[in-house]
Amino acid sequence: MTNEAATATTAAEAAPAPEPIPHGLGASLPAADARAKTEGTFPYAADLWAEGLLWAAVLRSPHAHARIVSIDTTHAREMPGVRAVITHEDVPGTARHGRGTADRPVFASDVVRHHGEPIAAVAADHPDTARMAAAAVTVEYEVLDPVTDPEQAFEAEPLHPDGNLIRHIPLRHGDPDAAGEVVVEGLYRIGRQDPAPIGAEAGLAVPRPDGGVELYLASTDPHTDRDTAAACFGLEQDRVKIVVTGVPGATADREDQGFQLPLGLLALKTGCPVKLTATREESFLGHVHRHPTLLRYRHHADADGRLIKVEAQILLDAGAYADTSGEALAAAVGFACGPYVVPNAFIEGWAVRTNNPPSGHVRGEGAMQVCAAYEAQMDKLAKRLGVDPAELRLRNALATGDVLPTGQTVTCPAPVAELLQAVREFPLPPLPKDTPEDEWLLPGGPEGAGEPGAVRRGVGYGLGMVHMLGAEGADEVSTATVKVHDGVATVLCAAVETGQGFTTLARQIVQETLGIDEVHVAPVDTDQPPAGPGSRGRHTWVSGGAVERAAKMVRTQLLQPLAHKFGMSTELLQITDGKITSYDGVLSTTVAEAMDGKELWATAQCRPHPTEPLDGAGQGDAFVGMAFCAIRAVVDVDIELGSVRVVELALAQDVGRVLNPAQLVARIEGAVTQGVGIALTENLRTARGIVRHPDLTGYCLPTALDTPDIRIVKLVEERDVVAPFGAKAVSAVPVVTSPAAIASAVRAATGRPVNRLPIRPQAAVVTNQQ
Hints:
The chain is α+β, with helices and mostly antiparallel strands. Residues 39-145 form the Aldehyde oxidase/xanthine dehydrogenase a/b hammerhead domain.
């Protein structure tokens, strides 16, 4: 052996062993697409290209409410390079669409009901030509007075053939004559939050030789989008295919259907591939937003602070069209009292149409708005009674076995008191030093704060709850196929990866069940069986459950011959780290040897137990499962300027079971940051229905500098026995809870009521008289 060889051998022997690759459930398995996303090679819809590509542009209404007198497309059609101009007259099939209720026209024909409503679309050989041609479409309007106050919608002339009232839920629970010794009231307003999705909303439509069309979209619910598109195009469903491209993050319905449909119509009309990339302004005007909400509350309690009765009126502003407003209202009414024991509850809930921008599904819809209100009421009640706010909440905390105001018994784990106690006992952060070197710690940041002596620190609490999966009889079902060949497993499931980590979870499930390291998740398209939308943690539960069942069926196929050979049951065999062993050690082989070149596959469905619609009194088992969260917020407020800095958010949450620790922490931190935006900065402002500053300059998202220290104090792993793996969805409930906790802390710092979100500076200013 040469000296060089000896040196190399010694170095190899001295080198530390490589870190083991994370494996199976409970491990922090990295996302398969993480490298591509960080390097900029991930294929988003905006990056797509096709031979003979045309570019699309959409003409949108500049008015919030107007009657269309005429539409003249002559000038646009005559422009060089323009290949097609379409309006409502060119829709061959169903002219209406909508996620929940199909009441929204593809193109406005006689009346414009909101600012930015599509009027016409153009396809041209250059994106600038398409935009100029869209602007050349002449529309004569008769401008009408918009209805922008949801309270006026009850008396206003109908804005839609279906009327202004979308849904009314009267909830009646307990004794209407019950009364408490202490009564507190409040009026609360929640602003309009935009989901502000990362990356441009874009898509590509490619016509097929059979007269159909393929749509390449960042869709979060491809089968619903396909069905809607097929109905609009006047085609059979099998002649429309949606291929899901990379989704650049989604906290709501990622793609506006009103964006997708003109794209497909233009491709069918021109016979050419057509691409449309929305500007940020078009995104703000087109897709749905969180429901602005007006809430009136009255809480009754006894002298010890125990709740006797809650009365509330909840009014959701749905904007111009219904979308999923009925579902949001059910969540708002169902959780109007929060995670507290309330023996008597009387809630009135309405969702109405206005001429404001459309509202729809955004993470924690309905539950977030009421959480801000009922937690403000708990603060008022604690102040009136002279009781510590956390102690008051503990006295009323919900637990497993208690009954919601809807009459539904809470059968899932509900460790509300344990969560609150955990954040209450967590050490408070140190106070900032009153020195120039630490001015950046003050509200307003460097050079932006007032006098240090004007800063007040506040501590507040929030308890929140959300439902998982669909509600009120929604058929929640997902299908998955697992195939194994040559030591490689492939998962086919139409569950879209929106950043929630489903593809990583699917790999972990198969690794855990079959002991196979190399697992691939196939791209999603509508040739696969449906899996439903990617909201409310559905895919962790329903799609993850389908993958688990399919993997277990493959496991049985794998183990059955061995079990038969050795005369034992498959339950007596286990798979660990790629090895199959029996309980008594007689059998020991590898998965690869047991496969022996065979190809195994299985398809399975997961369908949770059914729910039921709320009845005429708001009663019924409407929700499959629930998740809970407690947050303690610490804020610094400059009481002269009204500026607020969130110092720390301490969080405790029941998660059922931690399936991927790193992924879970990332989801919670992202959700809490979104909640900071709701509390302090995010509000899509309108003037008589016209969106003001529809861009990321006028709409203020929180940045890394606005994100506080997020302390995950406790994760309660009490498994939900009806959920696959016992896990609960984790990202919605921190969004619901953190704005309420921040508002509570600002109230503690200032003594002001803080009854509006986002919190405006004037709401946090304390005058000498106060």
